[in-house]
């Protein structure tokens, strides 16, 4: 009996190994080694189109290794498909029998085999082998095709990310160029800020590595970047930049023209993404909401008239419905990523663009000047041991201090980090479920009572997180809304000849809305000995929004290049104001489709509730109708209808929760924003079923 599941276990183990490859360096090395040994010579000559797709997608794997791993993935997929096919064949034999399965094969396939030519065992082996071969070959080609298509999909996503980051990246280059920085230094500064300026900076970083590692001159590096990038906008920019570098034209003037041009194109780029979101919303409503509702309804009607379809309804409810929603959330996250144009976190980057993590962890031996016995200076070497110990103590102190702040000022800490609320609400919800378990198992396991308990706990977790997150989000929006005014006042003062330090002192005394407190903290840091760059970097770390991060990075790098930063600050103000306007426009555009999702959800819940409360209770029990002849029409008993009702209730709960998450991802580009929609939809669903199905709260 156990041996029957050995192939399935082996298939699952292989899938688990391949699934762990992106997360484990050790597994990745092992898989790459096996793939190269087995299929390293499968494609000795590179396909130009596929090679260009790999480069455009930013995949750092060489062509031969990627091809070898593709064959390995395809082989594993074929093996898994063959195993699944064998189990499918065994299921068909068990359900239909060999003769029943043969009767369903078209006569043209069965006629050439004489009657009695094959034994029963041979027929079973033929069925198992046929289904295994069919699904195995199909799985191999599907995996092989999909894996070769992934670079094209990633390149297209990368193109949108680069296009979205172009205005900010060109503004950054423009600011440094106006300060007199050379183009190689500008490219290097941009490469240090990949986490701030996104995919465009990553493309520029490749050119910087070409210059640093291979000695490529700047013109050649720029040309190679233009040939490699999937973005037509960046390609044109780099080609024009190459021409400017060769012709000796004014570099800053060229960048100013390019900045204004890309700023005008920013709205067009957003429109492209909004069109994709609009199409995705229509597909979601049609396929996931209406389509699943149609399938569930049709299968239920078939079940009560022709046979039991409960298993299929449960399969759609517990597997297909969640899977399709998860796929849409992943797709929307990929589509909306270019709108952010930067990574959500700038891990390892300070606002000045230097790699803080690398600097802090660098323990290379250093030299320092010390006083010699004769009163002179001598060079003393340090191995960094004391510094390393001090850094470890400082890191430990920061962790303890963060915990202390969370305990002493929980409200303030929650506003800054809303996810901390989950460390409180999730244990409380789990405790609530455990406390109610005796009532669930009081007279045998009552699934409906258990559903009530889970819904209560889920609503509690979602609602509390939604409230805290919404407070935090609105606070950050108010901060970003005040940012353009702050920057414009700084620019005006700096243009009048006031230094940046004095400008900050004067601006903090004025009313700048939500930034009043932050301006005071910036000035307090400066009074305590911090430089302007350090004070702004701490301000960025406190606020941690993409707009503030880009602005602080731009100003700090501009201050390193020149003392006259008024034009740069004004550019930063224009950027912040434009970003806010585009964000508002996007929210207004997607509000329509968010309403459509709500309407589709209401239709879903109403139809399911109507079937559950109107249709099913009025169905006669098939077991009580043997004399009337109605059993030919009704094929489900009271026990069967109760199972259908419970499944419908679960389908409504699952759809409401996941539709809310999809709505948040679509409306604001973050699944966190979906918590409030999921709370509202889940509460509506549960209330509707309580009112119309007679469900009662426990206790």
From TrEMBL:
Annotated keywords: Cell membrane, Coiled coil, Membrane, Transmembrane, Transmembrane helix
Pfam name, any one: T2SSF
Residues forming coiled coils: 252-283
Domain Type II secretion system protein GspF: 173-298, 487-610
Location of the protein in the cell: Cell membrane
Domain of life: Archaea
InterPro entries the UniProt entry points to: ArlJ-like (IPR056569), T2SS_GspF_dom (IPR018076), T2SS_GspF_sf (IPR042094)
Tagged with keyword Transport: no
Topology with respect to the bilayer: Multi-pass membrane protein
Membrane spanning residue stretches: 71-96, 125-146, 283-305, 311-333, 420-441, 453-471, 590-611, 678-698
Recorded GO CC terms: plasma membrane
Subcellular location, principal: membrane
Stated name of the protein: Type II secretion system F family protein
Organism: Salinirubellus salinus
